[in-house]
Amino acid sequence: MENEGYDGYQSRLRILGVCMVLVIAILIGRAGYLQIYEGDYYAGLADGNRIRIIPSMAPRGTFYDRNGQLLVTNRPGFTVSLLPLTSPIKDDVIERLSKLVNVPVEDIKDKIAAHSGFNPIRIKTDVTPDIVSIIEEQKDLYPGVMIENQPIRDYVLKQEGAHTFGYVSEINDQELEDKKDQGYKSGDIIGKFGLEKVYDQYVRGQDGGDQVEVDVSGRPVKRLGRKVPVPGNDLVLTIDKDLQTAAEKAVDSRLAAINASAAAAVVMNPQTGEVLALVSRPAFDPNLFAHGISSKDWAVLNNNPFHPMDDKAITGEYPPGSTFKISRYGPSLDHPERQLRGRGARLDQLQGSARTFRQRLFL
Question: Which residues does the annotation mark as catalytic?
């Protein structure tokens, strides 16, 4: 009986030993598989948790007039952004940041919810040095918040030529959906109007970035590499800066004299068709959009009954006036001896009166 019990104990011990050997063999085999066959994959995941790519926006191309005078350029600016973290951003940080940069909490949360990938979430563009100092000095109160050096579009003439040059602003959801196949991403600054929109692909350049090592809280601690941004291409326009300024002043002077608010003027070279100056009134300052237009400023533009965002020089519909006489009397060139007399009426829309006048043409 004792031998049978001892033999049973030995048998169970041998079975347990075999199981332990199998388990150890499986663990060693699995470890070897992960190290040899999947090592590069998991090393990449580990680096992904430790290394971040912080994009650096490329400056857009500069606009020059026909004589090489500067029209549109870039200036350095600071942007407050959120660096994507491994954990959700706390509500108290969002509320603190909202008060600092004067951006509603709901807007910040909407940007966070719509964000994907590791690109910074841009919250406020072109902030003052005071805000930059506060964030840099109180990093513990703003975990995940970073300051980006970002080129800000600078429209030198302000509202002069605004309808020609257009303006830039951050890409919206619909534009991102339409342009995602063209390399656009969330937070990009794109042309929204005028030449900025027409030549956006040509002047936008290629973004660069910094490869940085981050700590457990997601804060950058070391730069590992850098890709230098490539500036966009410049544009040389047919616009004459001095003539543009003169045309703007002439239109404003005339509007003030007759107490009117809307007008349009175009100066062209009749031999080439080049546009030398283009004026539309009322106008707007595109710099308002370059650093993020406020609700108050947008309301002023949007509620203006004379629609300053409309380019009246190319979208307005006006009577042809005397320009129509060319098509009417052109055939008479075949008979230079004929003298044409006519009687017509002109509607003076600015003064609201009708005047009769005689016209006498010798062709």
Answer: 322
